[in-house]
């Protein structure tokens, strides 16, 4: 049995039933095999064995009272995975699907994503199996206060700086920060994604979506092409999807789809972005409401999706941006995209493509931007928010956006250059994984056995 397979098998024994975590680890470790052969020092220092185990795993109950006076209990997590490059940095996810395996996969991915930004931040992730949908503001506030009553003792501006993720937007960040401030008696930059009124950064809400499009722009530039006039499929309708669509329109492309947990909208003339923003950001509604003003659009309910994938990927387009959640794009979806002429796939979500789908993209020669590289714009701008907090300054939108664009360009060229060095110039999965791993592994060696 190879060293990599042996490591993964041991992981399955020590961390049972964490399928997404195994998938994330396998993706990285199989990619870096050429590096391990070239640099035996990484094996000598047991970097792999240390890297796949979090430095700290915090799990706690979150009791809170609903509006009817009933006590509810959820499970909270914070996985502080690796601090070799700086304070732990990564979002909080509030969603019923959250469990230890999901948080560990997200935290593991975050290590390399954060390393690729070139900024001094380590990797972590957290959340709870709490569903904000259908809850009143008062219930969400009570839950957030209970969650932070445990978390506050483990975080700090130079220790661990959480941000938002699925189910954690500006409202939740506000309630979390307010409770942290009450308990710690400090006004720290301990959370990012804050309101502009009290320490937030311009462009943070837009950053992940914008960043994915900037990454796509780099990929198109390398092919001597541009985004102008390109039809783009988008999944999701949260911040990432909405602001990817916004930037695509800015650059002359045409987003023609989006989705939520209930179904998919396809609008060949181009998605009405103002309407989607109104439905999702203001009314917190469902995308099927889109048809009330656009009866020429198509809506596919989730129950009518193909059994082997997601209906959003079955339309013809030039580019695809999976921006919803993990493993949403299957091998059959990938096959449909390629058959329908899609030449570029850029991941706005974390690990949205199954391994079988990724293999098809790479084998086909399509331009494929993996999530840990393409969606790093959010965490990069979070770190820019940390810098502004530490210096008690605020940069304007254009300054932050320009820095974001530069960071995404650097990530792309770092991954591409590394892929070329290892003889696979079009394989950005290999390039991103090796580039991120080297930075973390070298720092770990320099810091000793810790």
Descriptive terms for the model:
Rossmann fold; nucleotide binding; globular; 46% helix; 5-stranded parallel β-sheet; 15% strand; 450 residues; Glutamate dehydrogenase
Strand coverage percent: 15-25%
Uncertain runs? none
What order do the SSEs take from the amino end to the carboxyl end, as H and E?
HHHHHEEEHEHEHHEHEEEHEEHEHEHHHH
**What is the SS-derived class?**
alpha/beta
Which class of one domain in CATH terms? Alpha Beta
- The counted number of beta strands is 13
Number of helices: 17
Overall helicity: 40-55%
Strand order of the largest sheet: 1-2-4-3-5
* CATH level 4 superfamily of one domain: NAD(P)-binding Rossmann-like Domain
Distance between the termini: 28 Å
Gross CATH architecture of one domain: 3-Layer(aba) Sandwich
Instruction: Indicate the radius of gyration in whole angstroms.
Output: 21 Å
CATH topology (level 3) name of one domain:
Rossmann fold
Mean pLDDT: 97
Taken from the alpha-carbon principal axes, the silhouette is globular
What's the story with the biggest beta sheet? 5 strands, mixed
Descriptive notes:
It contains 17 helices and 13 strands. Helix 1 packs antiparallel against helix 2, helix 6 packs across helix 17 and helix 16 (397-421) crosses helix 17 (428-446). Helix 6 (100-116) links the parallel strand 3 (88-94) and strand 4 (122-128). Among the domains are: 15-25 and 51-188, 3-Layer(aba) Sandwich (Rossmann fold); 207-369, NAD(P)-binding Rossmann-like Domain (Rossmann fold, 3-Layer(aba) Sandwich). The two termini are 28 Å apart. With 450 residues, the chain is an alpha/beta fold.
